[in-house]
Amino acid sequence: MNLIEKIKQLREETGISIGECKNALEESGGDLEKAREILKKKYGEMAQKRKKRETKEGVIEAYVHSGKKIGVLLELRCESDFVAKNPEFQKLAHELCLQIAAVDPEEIPILEQNWIRDESKKIKDLIEQHMAKFGENITIGRFARFQI
Fold it and tell me: Which of 11, 38, 41, 42 is the most exposed place for a label (fewest CB within 10 A)?
């Protein structure tokens, strides 16, 4: 796999800018796994700084499972209305609803759960990835899981 293909793959996986993906690959000597770790460390540190910023905007997402026996209502918060209206942010809200429906957060706190679509990631990693993509703090506000 050449450098351009590796950059493209990192960009698709992380949502982080092409320039940052290229820098991480150069720093890792072209090793994709090391580049992922570099980006994770760098953007994890940035996410920690962003967590201090207030989240006044966001969306409310609802999900009802096909059998109509489980439903979720979620408040996902961000800093700006611009990000709240972004389809990728709204998709994240939907993914979190699916997660809550699949794995009851009363048993395992939601941020510590493994993501149902990729067991190698925790929900907090997924949120931090989106924080890096949007450059804003993202928090899970209130949520409710209903089950009959």
Answer: 41
